[in-house]
Input
Amino acid sequence: MTATQWQSHLIAQGAHVDGDATYFGDQQQALKRTAQHNTLYDLSHLTLLEVSGADAVPFLQGQVTNDVKLLDGKHAHYTGYCSPKGRLLALFLAFAHQHHLHLQLPKSIADAVSKRLKMYVMRSKVTISDTSDRIIKLGLNGPDASQILLQHFSEVPAAHYALSTLEQATLLKLPSIAGHDRYQIFTTLDHAIALWESLKQKATPAGKPCWDWLEVNAGIPEIVPATQEQFVPQMVNLDLLNAINFKKGCYTGQEIVARTHYLGTVKRRTFLMHVPGENKPSAGDKIADANQSEVGQIVRSAPHATGGFDVLAELRIEAQQVGTVFWQAVALEQKVMPYSLGLIES
Output
């Protein structure tokens, strides 16, 4: 079976595919189910790059913000990929599996980022490849998600970012909304259909907007074409997500990232907020204060079940603390981040 056949199977099951994104049924109903029940996802909008070869670890160690040597096959972590000026080109969810390293990122930037990484391989013994034709990525979320997986697998990871490699799949636990567990499942094309059909007996298929909503409410940023080279990693909270290792040594952009950390000059952070109304904010859209001065931009957005959109908004800390900020003259409503920003008014 090919990836195209996998997509055809989902369409036959009632999915609507638009570009890289998969949708199921009415979006508002799907969002309501996501907030309350068990839901199942096709994650074809994400690309999983495989980095292999004798020099894979030292090569990536010189490219990304986190310590690649910590990827032991039992844990995943986020890591940034920066320009020489310390601005993010990509955010990876990284893990090791069977002597390979894997980097997950949005499909919208995957080709360009892969091409850039390959430019720096030079004489290193490193191969970078797209696994889309071999590995299917599924998501499962809900109050019973762990119990559902235990009906299919002998072991299910219990801690956030813990990884379990099993005979027919690899399972990764991710943070979720209160009362829910969230997992990614990596499996082969041969096993994907049977697993999907079995899981959907206990979990309702839902589309990409619902997965995005879970990601936004977990405080997980995303780098897409509109926001590449817009942020130093700390602006989108990568230090708070343990996605930067300040002791690992040199990597591209390291000087700027380290200077920001050691000089205590983080003046911008990313906040969880809500935008009322029917118009969708897009990544890269500007945010202004009451004087119409630009104070930040949208990092990521997702529709909310009761209307409007939840967003991750990168802002000047002072502007967030002093008063209301606006997207296209619409006032943003503050929500509570799932992790501490270390700010008195956060």
